Amino acid sequence: MTITEPLLPAERAARVKASAARLDFEDPSLFRDAFARLFAVHPELDQVLPNSEGGQQLKYAAMMEVILSTLDPPEEQELELPGLGQMHVLFGAEPDYYTWLSEAVIAGLAAKLGDHWTPELAADWAELFSKVSAQMMTGAAALEDQF
Asked: Is pLDDT at 76 greater than 80 in this prediction?
């Protein structure tokens, strides 16, 4: 899938990027917190999603870089998101998992950003994760259609 425009308008993308600049996505506590929030609400996922220190958290840090790259105006950018969605199907991901994990990560971002978190920023991140999830689910559906 080729994307020819950013996933958020410039003003909203700028807010997300500014907030992301305040975060260290390689900080293990960011994703440890997100998983703790996720498992508190959906304990059944503790057996489905790997939550290892190190490797999995590095994957989430890399995924945040991919997500943030969708905010840049591409001339013609091949997104990895549909392919990532296909990989997640192979790991047993269900469509609801995207929403649940997005909510947990956004709550973790809000906690880390503290007073810098605003309702507008919450809406910006939510829309970004929603659009990223939609791209991933499109890839997942395409794979499922093959079987």
From this structure: no
